[in-house]
Each structure stands twice: as C-alpha cells, then as structure tokens.
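User: I'm curious whether this sequence folds into something compact or stays loose and floppy. Could you predict its structure so I can see for myself?
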Amino acid sequence: MAETKPTASSVKATSVQAKKSSNAISWIAPIFCILAGYCIWRFILGDPNGFNTPGTGAFWPEHKGPKDALHRIYEGGIIVPLLLGMLLMVIVFSIERFLTIRKAMGNGSIADFIRKVQYHLANRNVDAALAECDKQRGSVGNVMKAGLRRYKEMIGETALDTEQKVLAIQKEVEEATALELPMLQKNLVFLSTIVSCGTLIALLGTVIGMIRSFSALGEEGGAGAAGNLAIGISEALYNTALGIGTSALSLIMYNVFTTKIDAITYGIDESGFTLTQSFASLYK
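Assistant: Here's the prediction. I'll summarize afterward.
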C-alpha cells in the first residue's frame, strides 16, 4: 500500500478562540433612543411654559402659540420624536463604534508594527515578534499573533513540506481574520440605515404637516388662514431640517468608520502576506 503523505489538515485545529461579546446594545439602544426622543419632544420642546396657549392631554397636548423657535419644533408633530430618536441613535452608535474601532487599531502605527515584525522575522526571532503583538494589542496584532504561533509550530514540524506549512499558517491567519472583522463592522448597519431612512421619515413628517396646514386653510379661509398656513409650513419644514441633519451626520460617521476599518483590514492582509512570505523564504 502506498504511503499517505501528511497534509495541512492533519495539523491540530486552530488556536484562535471566538470572542464573546454582548449584542444587547443593538436592541436596547434603539428602544432607549426612541423613548428618549419622545421625552425630549414631550417635556422639553413641549413644555407648556413655552407656549401662549398650553394644551391638554398626556401623550400629545395640542399647545398653541410657541414663544420661540425651539418650542415651535414641537408642533412638527409625532414624527419629531422619531427623528430625535434617530439622531440619538447616530450619537450612541458613533460613540460605540469609535471606542471599538479605536481599541481595534491598537497602540501606535499599524505600518510601524508590521515593519517591526518583519524585522524580527528576518532575524528568525519569532518570540520578539510575538512580544510586538502583545504591545500592539489591536486587531492586526491579534491576527498576527495567531499566525505567529502557528508559524512557530511549523518551524519545528517535520511531517509537512514547506508548501503545506505555509498553507497551515495562511489558514490560521484567515480564521483569526474571520473572528476580528465582524466585530469591526458590527452596528454599522444602524448608521447606514439612518442615512437612507432619515430624510424619508422627515419628508413624511413634512407631508403630514402640509396636509394639516392646507386642511386648516380649506376650513377657515380668508387672510387669517393664509398666515396660519405660512406658520404651518414653517413648522412642517422643521421635520425636513432635522431629518436631513440626522442623515448627513450619520453619513459622515459611517464614512469615517468604514475608512478606519479599511485601514485595519489592509493591515491584516499585509500581516498574512508577511507571515507566509517570510516562512516560505526562510524555511525552505
């Protein structure tokens, strides 16, 4: 019987462990933000002291005669709390993503870190390269560290040829990458959704406000109704302004975070290339 040649699959399973993370913020934050948006609209923008004719009712008092522009936003209607909630969501998820991505970027420059690892590998000092990963403490460092551990194992492995060892290192890097990238992209969907929906929801609020204004014009008639129509239109446009501002802020933050994620992803790709090329050239 012909002898079976060992393959890379015979190497022990990856040492990379899945990260445990709570997804509570993904469903708690939107609910909390919408409720907070309603409270701002109802109790701050809808403060009875800010109107000449305070209304009655618990959920949506119909106050009349706002004394300033801040309280005039209240008359934009029930769409305003939703828009305020979306604005709060942009702020909350921007802070959350900033902290997560800042941690993922680690300490110092990614390019400098990779150059240091390349230097240590060129001098066959894997332990020093691992020490650099502990200092970096970011996603690139985590992926590099996982690859370096397998790199170190493959140096003393005699059952596999060079090509199989390189494949084993590459597989380890790919598995570590598959665990790191989802954490970077998590919750960005909220920002991208708000970019698309913010303006549409604001437009809905504007249309509803216009319908109410023209309906009042038809019922009252006369020059006085024209004045009320102008006030109603200005109030309806607050929805548009708030929605456009929210969408613009969400788009800016989304682009900022995706740019930073792209930089980390590039560093991870370069790390994998560094490990495989170094091993292939030094341990033929």
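Summary: The chain has one domain: 25-282. Residues 5 and 160 are 8 Å apart (CA to CA).
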